[in-house]
Amino acid sequence: MTDAITYCENHPTRETGLRCNRCDKLICPSCAVSMATGYRCKQCIREQGKVFNTAKSYDYALALVVSIVLSLIGYLIVTMTGFFFFIFFISPAAGKVIASVVQNVTKRRRSKALFRTAVAGILIGGLGPALLLALLGLDLYGLLQSVIYSGMAAFTAYYSLTGFSLK
């Protein structure tokens, strides 16, 4: 009994015996994506990614506006305390609060672009006023505070939104 020669469905001239472990499609090594449980075709990988991207188009605007406003409030709190040392306590807390509010406003829908939009809003809200004052030559110390606050808040918010936690 002779085995029939099989060819990749995407590249009909390439012989293969490899199959996608999800849809059973014949794939060559260049079409295969290695997973912990075997190989998958690129189409199945794309479909699997769509399951995790649940954000609606209006979620991006909501996340941006909410994160800008809350980050601006956090920045104002940082500058009103007057103590440089408190930035290191207030910033991560602000990032966590902003992430939580963004999750609630977007009804916990997810996508990488949504998380990046929220981070952009944090940076705009935290850096915007300080950059304006620095450009006018009024407050370079405030710019330093703003950079530290925005960076720490954005970092904390991003990892809170993506589900990463330090334990």
- Parts with pLDDT < 50 across at least 5 consecutive residues: none
Number of structurally distinct domains: 2
Q: Into which percent range does the helicity of residues fall?
A: 55-70%
Number of strands: 2
Order of helices and strands: EEHHHHH
Number of helices: 5
- Determine the N-to-C terminus distance: 58 Å
Radius of gyration: 24 Å
Q: How is the main sheet built?
A: 2 strands, antiparallel
Shape: elongated
Q: Tell me what portion of residues adopts beta-strand conformation.
A: under 5%
Q: Briefly note the structural class of the backbone.
A: mainly alpha
Task: Please tell me the overall pLDDT.
Answer: 87
Strand order of the largest sheet: 1-2
In short:
The protein has helices at 42-52, 57-81, 87-105, 112-135, 140-161; strands at residues 32-35, 38-41. The protein has two domains: 1-52, no CATH class; 54-161. A two-stranded antiparallel ribbon has the order 1-2.
Q: Key features?
A:
5 helices; two-stranded antiparallel ribbon; mainly alpha; single chain; elongated; 2 strands
SSE diagram, text form:
Blueprint: E1 32-35, E2 38-41, H1 42-52, H2 57-81, H3 87-105, H4 112-135, H5 140-161
Antiparallel strand pairs: 1-2
Can you walk me through this structure?
There is one protein chain. The model has no long low-confidence stretch (mean pLDDT 87). The protein is elongated, with a radius of gyration of 24 Å. It has a two-stranded antiparallel ribbon with strand order 1-2. Helix 3 crosses helix 5. By secondary structure, it is mainly alpha-helical. 60% of the residues lie in helices and 5% in strands. A hairpin with a 2-residue loop joins strand 1 and strand 2. It has five helices and two strands, in the order E-E-H-H-H-H-H. The protein folds into two domains: 52 residues, no CATH class; 108 residues.
